[in-house]
Amino acid sequence: MSDRSRTCDEGHAGNGENAVLPGSPGPPRCRIGNPSCCCVTEYRTWDDDCPLCQALREEHVQDEYTQILNSEMSVMIEAVYGLSSLVEQKLKEKQKTRQDIWKREGTFGIFVTKGEDGRRRIVVRDGWTSYHIDDAQSGGVLVRRVQPRVLTRSHTTTTGTPEAVEGPPTSTGVGGNASGAAGRVTAPPPVDTLEACERAARRLREVASHLQHGDVPLAVLQKTLTYAACVLETVCQEETRKLLDEDDELSEVRPDAVPTEVREWLESTFTRQSASLPKRRSEDKPRFRSVANAIRAGIMVDRLYRRVSPSAAVHLQVPPPILDLLKTTDEWCFNVFKLNELSTDQALRYLSFDLLNRYGLVHKFKMSSLFLENFLTQIEAGYKKYGNPYHNNMHAADVTQTVHFMLCRAGVANWLTDLEIFATLFAAIIHDYEHTGTTNNFHVMSRSETALIYNDRSVLENHHISSAFRVMQRDDCNVLANLSREEYREFRSLVIEMVLATDMTSHFQQVKTMKTALGHHDFSLDKPKSLCLILHACDISHPAKEWSLHTRWTGYLMEEFFKQGDKEKQLGLPYSPLCDRNTTMVAESQIGFIDFILSPTMDVCSELIMKIYQQVLHQQQQQRASSASTTGTPSEDSSRSSSVSSVGSQDVPKEPARPWMKYLEVNRLRWQERAAQDAEAKRLAEEQASVTNNGSAEEAAPASTE
Ligand code: CMP
Ligand code: MG
Ligand code: ZN
């Protein structure tokens, strides 16, 4: 065994730290004057004339520990692959231990060991703690937390893994400060980059080759291994995440849970699998970006409500009955049909004008009220262009009002900047602008002009955005005229992202990605992704509203689908799912929609809203604490009372409103009753038909024998 405390003849330590020759000028040198001797620089070169060099070299080459580490490198790589496939397998079985194993933060080592019982065991080192994972246990993975043991070189045994526990990798990374045999080192790239993989592989090879000559400092070796483990782990983690995302999106829908027709409809409408195309691999999933939690809690509170700028009020004269009805826009089951009646088919214009003023956005972004009115008039006209039963100005107003509910009653506005609130409401207002009353699939199959323009990708959504922005090309409709260049860019980018995400083919991916992210302990909220999900949820939310509203929407939607079916028949195209007016099972389709589309979406939405709420709350508490510590009184912002949201208004704030679940349940039951009635009616009709058939057959029979 080596002895790290040995010194050379001059009394210098072998680690190079104390190697300055007493009284000698210039750089440190060894006894024979070699500035790169081992006793000066730690194993950089071996000086054959230096007795300490020779002794150390001999020891080093034979050093058992070095050999173990050498072999551990290949074992480690194997372990990472092993662990990767293990995780893959376990993920498929939806093992809950996944997060323990893949706890990212502070995990910086993965090894395979052989236990005393001879079984292979994977060790994941998480900071100063190790987790021993034993996959041979029946019933799943067993994760044991092992207390840290700091061992030195002399404690190493021949049977174990490298037990020496190093501190977390420094920012300089592998061998950041080390010089010598392991090579000249610059700061390594971040572990989640392709460069890092290359760097880790190169470093491992270098270290392996140096180990053969026994000239790698322990610290360098450890850091290299640690870094490589980090890189490999990150790669595995990324793969694992992709695996999660790419799971068969409808795998959780049991084949017998819904009728085939409904299943086909779900598959062709809500996944990227087009009815007309073979299933393909989805593109790389977007990563969750870390968003700085720039929450300006409490600031929204005062300005949110009823802040009508005087200039705005001048233009749109709102009749009193409409004003009265607009007072109820904060309710989940706001009656948009009624608003449309009272406003002579101008629900979108009145509602949007009111909301944009209430949020103080007209004032904040210096919108001309006249331009806003012009813009909204144009947008409303675009919604009426094709006379659609469902995708018209009422649907746009409904989605905008539901988004407003999420902002104000579910507390999301407290988490957003003015520009983000503006973009979210704007996206809702325009999200189906100039909808043709036919689906994307119809555009693709009928080779429409719009499909040609947008290359069959999110055809309608692209059109909604593009044509709405085109409206603002007219000077007197340009409500964004006074946004700064940066504001405009951010606004436009948000609106584009949100409206594109209303394409139902991204539904499963969106919901699953958000669900996975919310399940991670180190999840940081991504604003654009969160807003996309919220708008998407509002867009499909009517089955979570009062039955009277929901059935009316369903009637309109089916009418629109059937009209498309009629067109398909005319064009000799196959019927799209739910578009054949003679065979579509409306009640069944709504049960399927509630069970497999809307309920999971609203579940994730609820979770997201709670997360946002907690984050806002936390932020406000911090603000209060810091304000109290500097001024001795709570901060003005955070102590304001809110009429919009309970967040931040009291010491123990109420939870954000989430009223949708009860409606979903009730509506589902009612559809079930309908489905049973429909089935009974069908059975009776079939019975009747067979009686009639038999009767006419009997009548026909004697005639034929005559
Ligand atoms: P759109 O509003 O453009 O985006 C969401 C789509 O979901 C909508 O068009 C309809 O095609 C579909 N959708 C919304 N609600 C239902 C529902 N209750 N049943 C079936 N499909 C629906
Ligand atoms: Mg749409
Ligand atoms: Zn819509």
Concise summary:
The chain is mainly α and 706 residues long. The chain contains 25 helices and four strands. A hairpin with a 7-residue loop joins strand 3 (129-134) and strand 4.
Structure notes:
The chain has 706 residues and is mainly α. It has three domains: 3-83, no CATH class; 97-168, Lipocalin; 260-681, 3'5'-cyclic nucleotide phosphodiesterase, catalytic domain (Catalytic domain of cyclic nucleotide phosphodiesterase 4b2b). Helices cover 53% and strands 4% of the residues. It has 25 helices and four strands. A four-stranded antiparallel beta sheet has the order 1-2-3-4. Strand 3 (129-134) and strand 4 form a beta hairpin. Helix 5 (194-212) runs antiparallel to helix 6 (218-245). The longest helix has 46 residues, at 586-631. The termini are far apart. Adenosine-3',5'-cyclic-monophosphate binds at residues 432, 502, 504, 539-540, 543, 554, 557, 590, 593. Zinc ion is lined by residues 395, 399, 431-432, 539.
Largest sheet: 4 strands, antiparallel
CATH architecture annotation name of the largest domain: Orthogonal Bundle
Rounded mean pLDDT score: 74
Find the count of extended strands (DSSP E, 2+ residues).
4
Family: Belongs to the cyclic nucleotide phosphodiesterase family.
Region (Disordered): 1-26, 152-190, 623-659, 675-706
Cofactor: a divalent metal cation
Domain PDEase: 314-678
